[in-house]
Amino acid sequence: MKTDELRESYLSFFEEKGCVKRPSDVLVPRDDKTVLFTPAGMNQFKDQFLGVGKLEFPSATTCQMCLRTGDIQNVGVTAYHHTFFEMLGNFSFGDYFKREAIHWAWEYLTDKKYLGLDPSLLSVTVYQEDDEAYNIWHDEIKLPANRISRENEHENFWPAGAPSDGPDGVCGPCSEIFYHPNGGKDNVEIWNLVFTQFNRVGNPPDNLKPLPKKNIDTGMGLERTASVLQGVRSNFEIDTLKQLCLAAGDIVGTGYDFDAPSGRPVRRISDHVRAITFSIHEGVNPGRDKESYVVRQLLRRALLEGYLLGKHEPFLHRLVPAVVEIMKAPYPDIAKTVENVQSTIKEEEEQFLGVIEKGLSRFEGFLKSAEQAGSSVISGEDAFDLHQTDGFLIELTEALAAKNNMSVNRTEFNNMMQRHQKDSGSGAFLDSVMSEGPLTALHKTISETDFKGYETTTTESKVIGIIAEDRLVESMVEKGHAHPVVVVLDQTPFYAEAGGQVGDTGFLEADGIKFEVTNTQKNAGLYLHIGHLLTGKLEQGQTLTATVTEPRRSGIQRAHSATHLLHHALHTVLGENAMQRGSKVEEDTLRFDFSHSKAVTPEEISRIEDIINQRVSEGAPVTTELMKLQKARELGAMALFGEKYPDYVRVVQMGDFSTELCGGTHLSNTGQVGLCKIINEELVAKGVRRIYALTGPKALEKTRDTEKLLLEIAAQMKVPRPDDLPVRIQHLQDELRETKKQLTKFSSKSLAGTADDLLEEAPVVNDVKIVAYHAKDASRDQLRELADHLRKKGKQVALILGTVLDGKVALMAAVNSDLVKQGLKAGDCVKAAAKVVGGGGGGRPDMAEAGGKDPDKLDEALTTGADYYRSQLEV
Prior knowledge:
Elements: H1 3-16, E1 20-21, H2 46-50, E2 59-67, E3 84-93, H3 98-110, E4 122-127, H4 131-140, E5 148-151, E6 157-158, H5 162-165, E7 169-179, H6 181-184, E8 188-200, E9 208-221, H7 222-229, H8 239-252, H9 263-281, H10 290-308, H11 320-327, H12 338-372, E10 377-378, H13 380-390, H14 394-403, E11 407-408, H15 410-418, H16 431-434, H17 438-443, E12 450-451, E13 458-468, E14 471-473, E15 475-476, E16 485-489, E17 491-492, E18 506-510, E19 513-523, E20 526-535, E21 538-539, E22 543-548, H18 550-574, E23 580-586, E24 589-595, H19 602-618, E25 622-628, H20 629-634, E26 648-654, E27 658-661, E28 676-685, E29 688-695, H21 696-716, H22 725-761, E30 764-765, E31 768-774, H23 780-793, E32 797-805, E33 808-815, H24 817-821, H25 826-836, E34 840-843, E35 847-852, H26 858-873
Parallel strand pairs: 1-2, 4-5, 10-11, 12-17, 31-32
Antiparallel strand pairs: 2-3, 3-9, 4-7, 6-7, 7-8, 8-9, 13-14, 13-16, 13-22, 15-21, 16-20, 18-19, 18-22, 19-20, 23-24, 24-29, 25-26, 26-27, 28-29, 30-31, 32-33, 33-35, 34-35
């Protein structure tokens, strides 16, 4: 059975059992702050498992794309580990339970209509205290006792060890199913059935309380099961991943053979490029924080594998079409971002290859230092320095060291790394999610707030929940405004922050009662009116008049409709690859992020602005319609890749030129925008640009402020009209250039004199003059010029110079060439000095530069540099 066939077979089987087939959730769940990437199929059903919100279906089945990095060292080494993988799952939310889950799993695995595995090659494990599961397997499935193993809570409970170690919250025993190919010699876990039937409260004993509704959460690895069905020895040998490995081997130039020395690195490349392709497709580009950091590390690890195989040029981006080819059947949208994904990967590859080349000279220095010290080990501190300063992955340092018959102190490196390493987010729920809070309790009695904000800005609403001091209360009288209060209503006109649009503000009022809403948020269907009680007493069950601040709402609508016009204009000017990557919409102010590999030129900005305002002048109608997601896609509605959409979506159309999925509030025609003015365009992340713009009154105000500023500048420059400013400025620039030339001549003479004074006063160690000088207000060029003067005038001189530029330290060290031959290195001096000011750097043995963050320690750093020279010369 092919991998794509297995996916559809599984989903169809559980649909026949009454489960609702749901699409895969996004890989990067932006509305879930507990994880960076989706780690399991159950994540998208968190609310259903916790009893939060309205239950739209009692059971479900999915094939979920996942990403975990906890076992990254094993990827390509073992047969079954991955970073990106797909998880088949079937779930129950108070519907079917243990008996059905076990019987259906056995039926699907062994019935010849489905997988048809030999029952004699299957075994199971159960939690040691779960007699119910054991009896179902033994008495009903008829599995022999010697093929049912009872395991402890750390092996067969979710979360692992929960009864004893926690966390509090939903938990339960599990039963794992193993396949034993080759007559039982091998052991492959293919399915895990989790029976979430308890709520853990406190410490044992008697801390597992039965849940009123018991749930089922199962997970079967798609790639792992495909490898069993296809009779291959590794997930990387299945029909899909084998194609990717072959493509990677061809591009790297080694070919691919499972047992070849290049087999493991090619498998790692194949795994990682699939993970980064999907991540970048969803808008997560390589970077320094959170998800972006993980993507950068995966990309660099994959590139490193190729580099160590001799591929010293960008190649990963060429594998993106191969990833798309094997994954486009279940995830067709991935084919729409190929060009953007490739350009993003290639740019990061080029940057990292540059990092490697720059860092090689520093690595050579550490290698020689170890050799001179009579050691065959590069210190963990030096390896960590290469990692932090030069971006060297530890695997690269170790590989290069091994080529020189050396090793790296990995323990020391790991200890230093642990203090800086970021959480990869490969776990499932965090502790905070498992415990009940006031909202969880409220959700158990109320499903959702009825939103009326598309039709009106005022409603008569009933108070159905009050949260004060992080707990549910029946009533309250606010004393002071130390902490905000949350009011939940049965219906509301207030838009809750979503899709980049900020939440509404306004008031909740009745006789003697006035509550100011300063923000509106949403939690699984409940609208949270956040603010302060100004007068009166707030009580559950009260009827209040809810009124949105209309001028602010109108400004937000102008800005939001303008983002759709901007998106249309970007596609017209820059092309379809300029896809939305996020937005922020406030009162007559908007921020719009989009994928683009280079800065937008002033000419392009003008064309974009012209198109927007042309559409504004047309006064095109803005219409909205609620429809099925599939129908919206067929209409060509633009969606944000990586965004999670419900089954029914709101489609916003503007004239015949813009159709987008959008849940925000909008104008009734484009003419109501009034005016749109782009005020800035900038880079915010690799391959992502950002445009800021104003609409309506703020756009007009900005235009007037600019005109006023030009008039003021014209007056100061003593020209009659702003139109004369370019000629006047050009004249002043010519004068300034001439003045700088004269100043440079004067500075050169002054620097030559300074060099004479410094050499005359310099201490001498073994006939070498040591100069350490704080050159106040000097530029980098002047530091270099002074260093050149000192080396020319002094026969043997070792110097370190420093200055402060824009609040940061600049250091420069240099020595005469004769001293380099004697083993004295400017790079080692400047490195020692840079550590004092919280920085780093390097360069040639005869001249090196560094930077630092602490100007207050510059003089101390210069002393450290001089002491380094002295210590080397006194030997």
